[in-house]
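User: Round two. Same drill as before: sequence, then structure, for each protein.

Assistant: Same drill it is. First protein:
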Amino acid sequence: METAKQEKSPIEPAAEILFNFAVDRTDIKELMTGLHQDAKINRNTVEYELPILKIITVGWSISYFIGHAPYKNELLEIFWKAIQEFSQNISSTTEMMTGQGIDYLQVLKDRLNMYVDAMNHKPNTPEPAVIIGPEFARACGNVNDVFTVMTGSRLFIATAGSVKEYLEKVKLR
């Protein structure tokens, strides 16, 4: 007896696409190229923090734009599990290359908490990017550097917008 092929839930491929987008560095390279030469910031730190912000923004955007949909938790679980595996690979590779262990997943959690706490302290702010930009610059070491603030804000706005657009396109929003 032949078993019927089960149709794949649209959640799994969506989570995979969102994961791949979260870890793609194309836009990060563009932002680094566009970071003004007068920025008073360590460029290596910015290049380290941008992928963290992007991953966090994708995860945050999934929660924010899906709202109370019944598949929200499943999508988030699959997405964050992929991020956890990705983080373990980064941690292992870093330890092999530098001899120092890092817990990249913990770094992501810490930054997520930092950004969420900042937004919770200013609940009436109409646009989260107004909070995210300065917090990003603070994480990079100079909250007063306008170029770094703008770089973080740009990444947040573009990433959140792309996630929203994708979720609407696949009718998950």
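Second protein:
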Amino acid sequence: MRRRFLRALSRLSGRGLRPCLLFLALTVEPAGAEPREAIPTTPTAASEVEAPRGILKVTWPDIVHLVDQHPRWAAGLLNVTAARAAVSAARAVPNPSLDATIGRGAARDGDLRRLETGLELTVPLGWIAQRRHKVAAARAELDASQDEAEVLRRDVLLQLRVLFWNLAYDQARVAVLAVLESQTAELARSVQRRVEKGEARPVEQSRIEVELEKVANDLEAARISLRVNREQLQLWLGGAMELLVEADLSVVPKALDLDPALAKAQSTHPSIKTAQARVQALSSELTVEKLARIPSVALRAFTQEEIDRRAHGGGLSVDLPLWNWNSGRIAQAQAQLAAGKKQLEAQAREIASSIIESHGACLAASQTATRLKERILPRSEAAASTMERTYQLGEASLFEAIDARRVLVETRRQYLAALVQAQIDCSRFNALVGKEDD
């Protein structure tokens, strides 16, 4: 019965597990050795780690307060400023124009010569009919730019959130692999002593040395990944010190109810509001183009001084729409408005689809992490502990003990990865529905 149990554990271990975590929970010792402290099941919060000198510990609220330093968010705010200036430009009244002429005149029946001058003032009036609609279009563009800035802010926060949790994951992974390397090196020394005493076969020493090299390689790769993610986050925050994030990976996030979140996002999501504002702006621009068919009117006042007379008066200037009734620009504006409405419909559906997808991903990752924590991980630990005692009693070989621990190793790796993935997926869902992460 016991040997069937050992063979079953060996089959469950599989051969596709990552060798870097092969001995993550390996605490087995030769018979008679002092027991060592096992690696904790629950990931250690970064806040419990003492920050080395020259490294700054930051929390997520600290990063949120520094989001104004992000250039994409700053560019969005500048676009809002530009759109607000466009509203002022649309409100502006066109300036009148002044024409001045000067020339030399001579009488037909004499030698009298003198300068002739003339002044003409033109005040345009055609803008009056279009001004209200141009201002409405500019205001709609301002609303669109403000909503686009909110989209940028959410995207920036999500980008920083992903970097934040990836850095937290790499910190935990490096800490685990460092302990693993130490334990594997200690086990390798123990096996070497047993081989020297003739209590173990030389192949066991070779196997342990190979595993130690694999652990060392993966620890170095994890440290490189940690440095890369740290430098990326530090780059966007604009700081000079290295960062150590404070995050509790053991907390499994919970997804909001889908239907209320979906209904709220359909009416408040900034991308949808941006598309609505664009439609409003296009509608106002279509009205402006239709009003452009009305002939433009301008008031004129003039004064002229000639050789034998002096004249002054006023007049009315009206455009003659003989060759162009603005049909092309009206057709263009109508097509653009129809396209804007279709884009609004598509945007609403895309946002709804993204919310449904992100909600499913958040829910799946959270359930996976919870199931690993409450059901799978305790059973894997119990099975690995049983195999450890069997090895210490001399009823199993080192290779069988290693295979038995692989199930626990992979389970712990999946648990840590599921926790981080749940944080990222739920953060993406919260960004779509407008919920700020704590």
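The domain at 2-433 is CATH 1.20.1600.10 (Outer membrane efflux proteins (OEP)).

User: Perfect.
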